[in-house]
Every structure is written in structure tokens, then in C-alpha cells.
Design brief:
Layout: E1 8-10, E2 17-19, H1 34-45, E3 49-50, H2 51-54, H3 60-65, E4 70-73, E5 77-78, E6 88-89, H4 99-109, E7 114-119, H5 130-143, E8 148-152, H6 160-167, E9 173-175, H7 185-188, H8 194-207, E10 212-219, H9 225-237, E11 242-247, H10 264-276, E12 281-284, H11 294-309
Parallel strand pairs: 4-7, 5-6, 7-8, 8-9, 9-10, 10-11, 11-12
Antiparallel strand pairs: 1-2, 3-4
Helix pairs in contact: 4-5, 5-6, 6-8, 9-10
């Protein structure tokens, strides 16, 4: 279950303590069920990691209960330390080149129709782990044909060669999360750069305009509503097709505090605005995370693409 966030924050200028309580409409259920237990057992047997577990995703019970999960490759230790993320950080083990085969066999055993693959940052590798992403996509195509693939990739320090390696395998969805608004970028993710994220999303679209691109932002880190809309417009300028918007939930007291909780009406407003500025799909809800309803997105948008272009 997701850890409860800090119940208070201190304004460093006034030293006033303001309670920040989680609204009643944000309820995270503990993951349970037979399918969940079967999937968890498979992950452990194959020595695989999922971002669902490592990042304490609030939708883990729902997604695992329906037999889907987001595979975390390149180990479970990140070389960066972002203020919002609960994944372990430090010096990772050497890249495991047998890992892609274990992922592929799990995808096949689960008979997935849509697989989501993500990773930690691996700044210790000259291509940020892009070769492993490419290998996983290629092997899923070979071993389990008909399964669509979404990759949620790091920024690869903006390296076009790394992006090209992944795009050459033609994933159905190329996802890279911006996470927050430009003003807060350096505070929320101290080792990342906005221009690296831009290079990933615009570069992917330039390399293959038919591949759906996707990004996500969190609310509640100190941005304004207008800043949220501004970053949405920025992502549309980068020709991003799919957007996810969720509420930031503080994993522990050592992480960035929640500045405020957005209302359901505000999430609905942002969804309407996203569709108005012509995102092809918008998921906007407090508990939305990057891979939420990923299978539905690719099926619906692929059908539209076929109708338009044959």
C-alpha cells in the first residue's frame, strides 16, 4: 500500500505549519486477489522488477488484478535521485543482458496483448540502457507476435543515437514523462534537463511520425493551474499525442511535500482543456499514473489510425 504522505509542511519564510490532509476521494486500496498473487509470484520466480511495486503505484491492485503490469528493466537502482520518486537510488549492478529474455517469457506466459516496459535511469551506460530497450521490443515481436508495446523511457541525456535505437524497433507508444512544469523542473528532478526531455519527444516524432508519443505530469508540487495548462500547450507543440495527469502523493517524509491536492473538478477541467488543444487521448484523475489504461489507449488510437490511413 502507498505510504501516507506527510500531514504537514512548514513555510520556510513564516515557519507557519499548514496541515495538508489527503482528501477523502483519494483512496488507495491494498492489492489483493488471485490474479495479483499469481502475477507477483511469476515476477519473483523470474527475478523481475515492476515499477508498480518499486514506485508504490496506487493502481497496482487494479492493474495486477486484470493481469497487466509495467516491467521495470535495467535493475531496480536508479543513478538519479528525484525528489518525488520512491525507487532506490545509488550505484546499480552491471547491466544484466539476460534480463530481456526473462521479461519476454513473462509477457508470453501472461498472454499479454499490450506490454509496458520502463526502466530506471542508467547514466553509467553510454547509451542509458537504450540497447536493452531495443532488445526487449525485438524479442517480444519474435516470441509473442501481436502484442503491442509501450516503452516509458528515460531522457537518455537527450542522446539522439539512444533514441534512434529504440525507435528503430517501432514501439506502438513512445512514452517519456515530463513530470512537472518548467519552473519546477530543476527542483523536482535535479539531474534532469528540460531540453533532454524535448529531444526525446520531438526526436521520436521526427524519426517516425506514425508512432504515438506520450507524456505525463504530476500536480501538487507547487505549480499553478495556468502553469499546468502552459506545459500542456508545450507538449502539444512537441506533437505529443497522449497525456496523463495525476496527483502527486508523497512517498515518505524525506520526499518533496504535497503543496496542495487538486479537486476532481480541476482534473476534469484539465482533461477538457487537453482535448480542446487536440491531444488524442487524456487521462486526468488523482490516481492516474503513466501506464493507467495503456492498453485501451493503444487499441483505440490504433483503430482510428487504421480508419484514417488504412
Amino acid at each position: 500500500m502507498t505510504k501516507q504522505p506527510s500531514r504537514e509542511r512548514v513555510n520556510p519564510q513564516t515557519m507557519d505549519t499548514t496541515p495538508v490532509r489527503r482528501p477523502s476521494y483519494i483512496k488507495v486500496r491494498a492489492p489483493t486477489g488471485e490474479t495479483y498473487e499469481q502475477l507477483k509470484g511469476m515476477m519473483r520466480r523470474k527475478e523481475l522488477h515492476t515499477v508498480c511495486e518499486e514506485a508504490n503505484c496506487p493502481n497496482m491492485g487494479e492493474c495486477w488484478g486484470s493481469g497487466t503490469a509495467t516491467f521495470l528493466i535495467l535493475g531496480d537502482v536508479c543513478t538519479r535521485r528525484c525528489g518525488f520518486c520512491d525507487i532506490k537510488h545509488g550505484k546499480p549492478l552491471p547491466i544484466d543482458w539476460d534480463e530481456p529474455e526473462r521479461v519476454v517469457q513473462a509477457v508470453k506466459a501472461m498472454e499479454l496483448k499490450h506490454a509496458v516496459i520502463t526502466s530506471v535511469d542508467r547514466d553509467d551506460d553510454n547509451l542509458g540502457g537504450a540497447k536493452i530497450f531495443a532488445q526487449v521490443i525485438r524479442r517480444i515481436r519474435e516470441v509473442h507476435p501481436g502484442c503491442s508495446i509501450e516503452v516509458l523511457i528515460p531522457d537518455f541525456c537527450g542522446d539522439p543515437e539512444a533514441i534512434k535505437l529504440v525507435m528503430a524497433e517501432r514501439p506502438e507508444i513512445l512514452n517519456h514523462n515530463l513530470e512537472t512544469v518548467p519552473r519546477l523542473f530543476s527542483r523536482v528532478q535535479t539531474s534532469d534537463k528540460l531540453e533532454w526531455s524535448k529531444a526525446v519527444l520531438t526526436g521520436a516524432k521526427e524519426m517516425n511520425p506514425e508512432v504515438l508519443t506520450k507524456s505525463g505530469i504530476m500536480l501538487g508540487l507547487g505549480e499553478t493551474m495556468e502553469e499546468a495548462k502552459e506545459v500542456m500547450r508545450l507538449l502539444r507543440e512537441w506533437q505529443v499525442d497522449i497525456l496523463t495527469i495525476g496527483q502527486y502523493l508523497q512517498p515518505s517524509r524525506s520526499h518533496l511535500p504535497v503543496e496542495r491536492y487538486y479537486t476532481l473538478e480541476e482534473f476534469d477541467e484539465l482533461k477538457r482543456y487537453g482535448l480542446e488543444i487536440e491531444f488524442r487521448w487524456v487521462e486526468s484523475n488523482p490516481l492516474v499514473r503513466s501506464s493507467y489504461h495503456a492498453a485501451e489507449q493503444v487499441r483505440a488510437l490504433s483503430l482510428v489510425h487504421q480508419q484514417l490511413y488504412g
